[in-house]
Amino acid sequence: MTVNHKKYVGFIIKRDWIISTVWLLALGAFAYLLAVLYPSLFPDETSMQGIIATTNTPPMIAMMGPVYGIDAINIAILMSQECLIWFAIAVIVMNIFFVNRYTRTDEELGRHEMLVALPLGRLTNSSTIVFLSFMLNFIAAGFIAFLTLASQMDGVNLCGALIYGFSIGMQGFVFAMFTLLAAQLFSTARDSMGIAFALLGVSYLLRAYGDMNNHWLSYVSPMGLGLKVEAFYNNNFIPILILFAEAMVLAGVALWINSRRDSGAGTFPARKGKAHAGKFLQTPLGFAWRLSRNGFYAWAIGIFVFGVSYASVIGELDNFVEGNEMIKLMLQGEGGTAQLVDAFIALLNRLMALLVAIPMINCINRVRNEEKRGRIELIAATAVPREKIMGSFIIISVFEIVMLTFLGAFGLYVAADSSELVAFDELLKAAFVHLPALFVMLSFTIFLVGLFPKFTSLIWALFAYSFIIFYFGKLFNVPNFAAKLSPFDHIPKLPVQEFSVAPILIMSALACFFCALGVYYFGKRDLNK
Amino acid sequence: MHPISITGLSKNFGKLAALRGVDMTVNQGEVHAFLGPNGAGKTTTIRCLLGILKANSGKVEIFGKDAWKDVVELHKRLAYVPGEVNLWENLTGGEVIDLILSLRGAKYNKQRKEHFLQRFELDPTKKCRTYSKGNRQKVALVSAFASDVELYLFDEPTSGLDPLLEKVFQETVLEFKNKGCSVLLSSHIMSEVEKLADRVSIIKEGKIVLNGAMKDIAAQGKKLEDLFLSQYEGRK
């Protein structure tokens, strides 16, 4: 390593350390939280066997991976079986962002050009990223292992904790190298990141299919391979070595392509586009749609697949309950099978509503992004009033909410149809009843962009809060007033709860008020970077 | 009624006073050069003219109407080319030009657009992310020149253009001037200003420090560059 190489490593660390520290702390907090939580969720053997009976069904295996160690079950095995994959996904996402940030994004924005003009090798950047992403995953793996060990839960041991942590970290490293490779092939940051996330999806689906059918495809997917470690049971370290080897091969190919290509260029050339704008694109609404549509398509597919995949669980839920006398007895207090399904539907629709909020917030925040990038002035210098610019994005985001809400419910319906437990109109009601909460989130976003453009990201704090309340509100016995800070908590849980008009009306009125305020002030304030 | 009339324009960003009482008038049918070093307030002034920024005090009028209040009406009658042109990566140059022309709502025809596409040698089928700085500027210039408006606001429009295209720009501005259009041209290129401008305003630390006809400057036997530099180096 040359002196400049060392300086370059320092330079990347200097740019990155805050973001990565936040990621690692969040991961660690979650790892520790779960490690502490699991023993209280499953206090004895019976409850563990109970949950295993549920997770050992094809839909749940598809979701979380194969069940193992039933004969020697303990809390550590249970947690590893149910949680490893989610941590792997989180770490993979961290890696995709990390690598893309310092490769294709830098190149696209022309920052890379200033650096390559210095006495650095052509591969300095890529090889630094290989080294640093290895370090990042090494730290993440060690940190997760340490915290799991520190929880001292039943069945935890050093070897198992290390296997658990490093399976997660090594999956992250493989995807870091996938992203590095994608950055060599595609000429824009959007494309390379898109392809990396697509690979994540494919890897998850291959694993789901392979795990369900005991098929070799599980081994093709890095995520499937990562689950084969069977932490705290077999503690098989071979998959970790294979993952490392895969990552090194990917790194080698990426570096080889990098050494041969022009800086700024991809292997796949950018396509030629249209010389003229269509009629629709020439309107503010068409313009807003054009900027939002790609994300919308991705979300439309995603939410539909989400609905379909969870619907298969509904079917199983029913069969499972029917075929198991003990569970049936346990559920009698809750009113039996039909109520169980209803409760599940209410839960799913709330989760989908929360997910739909993400593209909606993104759509409105795009207005602020356009402003930050200095592009909105091109539009603001034309005869389009600013209220109309904002209005166009609001119309598109409402369209997105309605379509995505419908698609999620439709996905649920299509796949759950066979069980005939779910009426489509009930499902639609349960889904669309969330619209007022989404409108409130929407109006807050507009309000922030209009009045406090520097603080638009605050909406994500409210979103994260709502998400945490949704997931953990019951578990942690969050007091009622705190739960009610989430707009979603005011929505009646159809079909379990009764529909009530009051919260719907109040929230709609609130949404209109903040929306109007936001739009008004967006028209009145300075446009600034 | 002047195309542009600014009196006592002040603009603060927090504690920083970017403009401290700017006075400027652009007459009908003239090319008015707007000079000043980086950070003197040229772009801020132009943004106030466009209603992108709101003046803290003073009067900013275009064609006798308030630049902040009558944005929509006024923007049908003017075209703007920013100094740093940022475009939408996934739209082509041709799509951006059509979009801007259409949103501006002023008269334009296809021939006129094609004419300027050719004159500025711009390939409209490329995605904006692949354009260089100069090409992005050409997108903005074509979308400005292709519409039939009365006033053009240019903020360092030629900083990324090669000398051949700079010449095309100058020819086009003179053609438009002869048709009776008014032009506000912010620039650092003295030779360009000397060729094009009828009058000039020089801004320093948020105030206009010199304002005069190019004819008079020439009659006094002074060079614009020396005059400009003397404003800033004089304090030494």
Spell the H/E element sequence of chain B. EEEHEEHEHHHEHEHEEHH
The structural class of chain A is: mainly alpha
Helix content of chain B: 25-40%
* Overall outline of chain B: globular
What's this, in brief?
Chain A has 529 residues and is mostly helical.
How is this structure best described in words?
The complex is a heterodimer of chains A (529) and B (236). Chain A is an all-alpha fold. Chain A has helices at 3-41, 45-55, 58-64, 75-102, 104-108, 111-116, 124-150, 158-185, 189-213, 217-220, 222-227, 238-260, 284-323, 325-332, 337-372, 376-380, 386-416, 424-432, 435-451, 458-472, 480-483, 501-524. Chain A has 22 helices and no strands. The two termini of chain A are 40 Å apart. The radius of gyration of chain B is 18 Å and the shape is globular. In chain B, the strands form 2 sheets. Chain B has a 6-stranded mixed sheet with strand order 6-7-8-3-9-10, sandwiched between helices. In chain B, strands 2-1-4-5 form a 4-stranded antiparallel sheet, with helices on one face. In chain B, a hairpin with a 2-residue loop joins β4 and β5. The longest helix of chain B has 16 residues, at 163-178. The interface between A and B is large, with 38 and 45 residues.
In terms of topology, how is this protein built?
The complex is a heterodimer of chains A (529) and B (236).
Chain A: H1 3-41, H2 45-55, H3 58-64, H4 75-102, H5 104-108, H6 111-116, H7 124-150, H8 158-185, H9 189-213, H10 217-220, H11 222-227, H12 238-260, H13 284-323, H14 325-332, H15 337-372, H16 376-380, H17 386-416, H18 424-432, H19 435-451, H20 458-472, H21 480-483, H22 501-524
Helix pairs in contact in A: 1-4, 1-7, 3-9, 4-7, 4-8, 4-9, 7-8, 8-9, 8-12, 13-15, 13-17, 15-17, 15-19, 15-20, 17-18, 17-19, 17-22, 19-20, 19-22
Chain B: E1 4-13, E2 16-26, E3 31-35, H1 42-49, E4 57-62, E5 65-66, H2 71-75, E6 78-81, H3 93-104, H4 110-119, H5 133-145, E7 151-155, H6 163-178, E8 182-186, H7 190-196, E9 199-204, E10 207-213, H8 214-219, H9 224-233
Parallel strand pairs in B: 3-8, 3-9, 6-7, 7-8
Antiparallel strand pairs in B: 1-2, 1-4, 4-5, 9-10
